[in-house]
């Protein structure tokens, strides 16, 4: 069983890695270039090319009060032929006035793949979350469109202990033809993005997200308002790189918003 955990801390108003633990195949590496940047950027590196049969990964993230964390992945998440299944469980705690941003590379389930993912995210009243997910139909260039056995991804987001958002992505190609009308149709990738930010208007973010995606070709998308400070995005496309690049562009700007807000607070404290 592979696992890693991350706990942030605060040192001179900058986020640091207070505590981290990992086992093979993982490695946790800070990649922040500007050390004066309040936002800490961390990459999860893996010596494994993907999920194999009976792989079971456990992840724990604790973003402490007043800290900011951008968690990145190294490459595409491939799920190989897994007759007995593979799974991943991720638990995230985002404390008061903390920021967590995570848009991983696309997941690619190969022929015969069985995969289950569970994400449990707990936010305080003034926590900020940027959470993304991209799923491929499989290795379509190898003729493996929707050739996987089952793919399940359950994400539950709680605010102050109450369920706020739940997304249950469950695909079983043997039961549903995902190439038909009302399903994926001609598209082969889907992406989701959730933004929860009590410091910025959800409507303003929806306009920004729509502006970014309007520049992309051959996609369909919709942005929904969840509350006054939260919105959710769904996208269908035919290129994992295209969707990943678009979501990263959105994430980068939202990260800047968080940084600007925090830098202003730091400057006020130093005056």
UniProtKB/TrEMBL annotation:
Keywords: Chaperone, Cytoplasm, Nickel insertion. The keyword Chaperone applies. It holds the Pfam family UreD. GO terms for cellular component: cytoplasm. The keyword Ligase does not apply. GO terms for molecular function: nickel cation binding. It is found in: Cytoplasm. Its main location: cytoplasm. Belongs to the UreD family. Required for maturation of urease via the functional incorporation of the urease nickel metallocenter. UreD, UreF and UreG form a complex that acts as a GTP-hydrolysis-dependent molecular chaperone, activating the urease apoprotein by helping to assemble the nickel containing metallocenter of UreC. The UreE protein probably delivers the nickel. This is Urease accessory protein UreD. It comes from Winogradskyella epiphytica. The lineage of its organism: Bacteria, Pseudomonadati, Bacteroidota, Flavobacteriia, Flavobacteriales.
